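Quick question, first post here. What does this chain look like in 3D?
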Amino acid sequence: MKVAIQGIKGSYHHRVALDFFGKEIDILECLSFDDLADLTHEGKCDYAIMAIENSIAGSIIPNYSLIDDNDLHIIGEYFININHNLMVYPGVDFNKIINISSHPMALLQCKDFLKKTDKIIVEDRDTAQVAKRIRDKNIKDTAAIAGLEAAEMYGLEVIKTNIQTIKDNETRFVVISKSKSKSISNNPDKASLKFILSHRNGSLANILNILASYDLNLTKIQSIPIIETPWKYSFFIDTTFSNYKKYKEAIKKVSSQSEMVKEFGVYNNFKSQ
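> Answer (accepted):
Ran it through. Tokens below.
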């Protein structure tokens, strides 16, 4: 099985891939979410792991559009606690560090810690990639922010642990595929959808009332501007349910009240397991 991840081995995406699918998989490394979506759309992997939101930094809005624009399917989700750590080339003193580098989302999640330092903050494409570069090139003026897996894999020394602003720092990842037939859910109880509404007053409230009347629990709603039409928005929602038949009836009714409804995936709610 080929599983694509954003970043390299030792990253948080790599950890999710191993937790979700087990160790007997081939990992395909992608240094951007765009590359990840392209690889999946082209059918060069069976599945891909994509971070979609974080409890501190919020939604990764461009990733919703990548899933939509590439007609990808969500077939599962996975949550992990993100514990960020500061790591350096072995033996390097923190006072000798000039730069602190990591993925922008990791830097954002460690904002309070970084505000207290006099180091230069450098954005990079991946947490683990920074760690690997420090070791490969013997870089002694830069510290990386990454997970403990990266420190262990690339032989760096962890000098500060759990530097994220909020200690309970959780990220939700979705498992995506080009083909809906690759779904691995037997008894789905969660769905991700997109809908576009007219400009009529109360149109969003009407949709929410329909979902509630069919006992669907809205767990996420994210509005995203429709670039081609100023001040018009599409809505990405996650909803959980206990009765699949009632879910399908609700979506049928929502479709009759919307300009467009698109189902990204029906899968198992990880939190309920």
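The two ends are 24 Å apart (CA to CA).
The chain has three domains: 2-81+170-178, 85-160, 190-264.
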